[in-house]
């Protein structure tokens, strides 16, 4: 696969801390790790990708936080001054953080093994059984950590699937709901240290975040229950 080549094309913008480059690079790290794992590559080959993902992850989280807060505050009809202060607050924080970043050495691509497709199919089948087993516990759980871990495994499953073709639309939709659910959890945590100019909006923000979290969780449950039976048949056929 050509994950390293694609990363090289992004590298100049990534070194500048460009938001889109960070987003694309982070996705590439997950795709590369899924590919290496599925094709049986040595574990040490995953480490450079993991180091890069861990380095840039806080900045992607910061960008997502700003985007969500802007959207929610607009829905609450916040005044323009508050929105300007919000952008300034996060932009300043981001610049300060990026100034201290040292990107790791760029990962390299490996030669594709001859039996890559067979290994990918075996990985998909094994992972699907694990996901179903994990889901039985997650669906009964109120622990955000359990849902978060399951989401990570589902994302890996998606990227493994995409080695050979398009991932199922239901899987992508499920991940969208789980992602929004987690975003709302992270946002609520960040409000604990919210700058003073946001304090007048905190009660409403928390209420809206809770509503959106619960709605996303409900949709995720329903979609999983409807899709998992069908997908089981597809995998086993």
TrEMBL record:
<feature type="domain" description="CHAD">
    <location>
        <begin position="1"/>
        <end position="229"/>
    </location>
</feature>
<dbReference type="InterPro" id="IPR007899">
    <property type="entry name" value="CHAD_dom"/>
</dbReference>
<dbReference type="Pfam" id="PF05235">
    <property type="entry name" value="CHAD"/>
</dbReference>
<protein>
    <submittedName>
        <fullName>CHAD domain-containing protein</fullName>
    </submittedName>
</protein>
<dbReference type="InterPro" id="IPR038186">
    <property type="entry name" value="CHAD_dom_sf"/>
</dbReference>
